[in-house]
Amino acid sequence: MYAVNDAEHDARATSPFSEDSDSLFDEPQIAMRTAPPIPGLFVAPIRLPLELANDIVQQCMNLYFDGRDVNQIMLFGRTASEHNQNMGSGLPTFLITLLHWLAEMLRDHLPEKVHEMLFPPKDAPQRARQAILNLYHPGEGISPHVDLLKRFDDGIIGVSFGSGCVMNFERVQCQEELFGEAGPLDRNHWDLYLEERSVLVLSEDARYDWTHGIDGKQKDFVSGGIDGQGEPDWIDRGTRLSITFRWLLPGADIVGGPDP
Ligand SMILES: O=C(O)CCC(=O)C(=O)O
Question: Segment Disordered: which positions (predicted)?
Fold first, then answer.
């Protein structure tokens, strides 16, 4: 089953993978280190600088997670452009700094129209941006889901901190076949290892026609070496923080209004 993800906390709370799902009889899939050929999915060949990443993790832990029994936080901001300080006014300064860094660094690694969708030009209408922070301890994951179609627009940026993990992608139309008799339709399923401090972008097909999710595992089986050419190896999961930026659709930012 997959969820079209309305309340993301449901995907965390009801994850069928909230515990290590490896068994003696599972054939471990080898996750790739480079972006699978899903239209609209990009893994930029850049990593956040360690100092910036450490600062962001520390601020998130201090402000939202330390001493509290929560694993997910949602924040909202309004933005007009990447060129002014309102990259998401309402968001904390460290997230604005992150957005500015992303806007600059992704420019050379995304098609122009995708970059413009994520970081609109100066004269574009104001939009509402959501930042969702997810904290995963080893063994925890998130159910496969498509972000809610009526709440979020196209263009999602995901940044990993503290640990890598494998993200699974499944083509939506093949869910039933995957869980039925049809056998492994592996080209409708990709496992991608998200490196710590890496940046993932989901747009177009990758955002609408594929689910994304994270199995609740203690370790991941990943193709070898940086270039993926070596022998595959197990990589232990540490505590991972992810920050995901999404656009709210018009009206979806109004609290207390009709359910979009
Ligand atoms: O942790 C991640 O990278 C994914 C988060 C996600 O898919 C969500 O919050 O909807």
Answer: 1-23
Residue 84 covered by a domain: yes
Is the CB of 203 within 6 Å of ligand 1? Answer: no
- Tell me the pLDDT tens digit for each residue of 190-203: 999 999 999 999 99
| CA 256 – CA 260 distance, rounded (Å) | 11
Mean of the per-residue pLDDT values of the chain: 85
- The rounded distance, in Å, linking the Cα atoms of 160 and 46 is 12
Please say whether the beta carbons of 224 and 192 come within 8 A: no
Residue 65 belongs to some domain of the structure:
yes
How far, CA to CA in Å, does 5 sit from each of 18, 64, 90? 17, 22, 24
Max Cα–Cα distance, the chain, nearest Å? 57
| Among protein residues, the one whose CA lies closest to atom 3 of ligand 1 | 242
Q: Copy the structure tokens of residue 42.
A: 């990009």
Going by their DSSP bridges, the two strands 3-5 and 142-147 should be labelled as parallel
Residue 53 lies in a domain: yes
Residue 97, in any domain of the structure: yes
Query: Could you list the residue range(s) of the whole structural domain that residue 128 is in?
Result: 3-17+38-248
Question: Of 244, 197, 198, nearest to 74 (Cα)?
Answer: 244
Which one of 43, 191, 201, 212 would you pick to mutate in the ligand 1 pocket, going by the greatest count of ligand atoms within 8 A of its CB? 212
Does residue 218 surpass a pLDDT of 80? yes
Q: What is the CATH number of the domain that holds 50?
A: 2.60.120.1520
Q: CA 255 to CA 74: how far, in whole Å? A: 13
